[in-house]
Amino acid sequence: MISLVFGLLAGTTVVAVYALFRAGFLVDNGNVAVLAVFGRFVRDGASRVKVFDPGLHACRPWARVIQVSLAERSLSLGGTPAKPVSVEALGPDGTRIRVNARLRFRVARERVDVFLASSKDALEQLAGLFRLTMHEQIARFEMRPGELSAYTALRLRMSELQQRTREALKDVALAEFGIVVTSVDLLQIDPPDELVDALNAVISADTEANALVSRTELIVQQRVLAAHQAVEIANARALASEAEILTVGAELITLASQGVLGDYVARRRDEVLGGSQRVYLNHQPTTTFPRS
Q1: Lowest mean pLDDT among 162-166, 178-182, 193-197, 240-244
Q2: Of 103, 133, 165, 204, which has the maximum CB count within 10 A?
């Protein structure tokens, strides 16, 4: 009998301690909490879901505490926020454009119940809505005169596309998922493959043309420099020849004034003829008379 009483007291103590432990909960900073009792949210006197701010709160031991972060989050158009990837979208002119974008959002405090009850995975649903809206806005993006392609229009007016996508998302996201869309960030817009190939071909041709022009300029400069050097050499030789002629002329004038120019010329002629192997004499043609 005594053991039974002790057993009841011990069980009662355990239940009391467990109930006391479950009778309170702590909400972390940046979060809010709601309580669910037997699958239904706890509501206040105005039939609104009761939201608990950061701090220590009391509750019934059998209530389930659900905490939701109000911090800003992000999701990517493709891939993950840590490793976003580009996705293809069809432009208004029919070209396929690769787009990499990010959606920044937070859960609205007054719509926490909608965020929790709207679907099993509100964030996955939001990601699908983001992709659908982005594709729709790109396909409906109007091209202005002077914009050569949809890619050009999107590159020049990225801020407009961001604003239009955010405006198209914000009301639906808040009503359907209890999410406030903070911003839409276009990280990258890549041209279609055909345009990339054409641009690469133009860049390659431009590079080859610049290289050819550089080589041609170098060759021309080398030839001009060689021509200048040849002119300078010829000019130097001509000046040397002129100086030599003037010197020889002065010497000949001196010899002529001394009356020995004829002897000098005869001696130089004998020296030249003596060192030559052949001598060609220029005889005047002779006249022959016929015999009578």
Answers
A1: 193-197
A2: 103
Residue type, 182: T
**Which amino acid, one-letter code, is at 203?**
I
Q: Do residues 169 and 136 touch, judged by C-beta distance below 8 A?
A: no
* DSSP 8-state assignment for residue 48: P
Q: What is the residue type of 61?
A: P
Per-residue pLDDT at 292: 45
Q: Which of 73, 72, 63, 65 is nearest to 33 (CA)?
A: 65
Pick the CATH number of 73-191 from 3.90.380.10, 3.30.43.10, 3.30.110.30, 3.30.479.30: 3.30.479.30
d(CA 163, CA 280): 105
Return phi, psi of residue 102, to 5°: -135, 140
For the whole model, what pTM was predicted? 0.63
Single-letter amino acid code for the residue at 72: E
Q: How far apart are the first and last CA of the chain?
A: 193
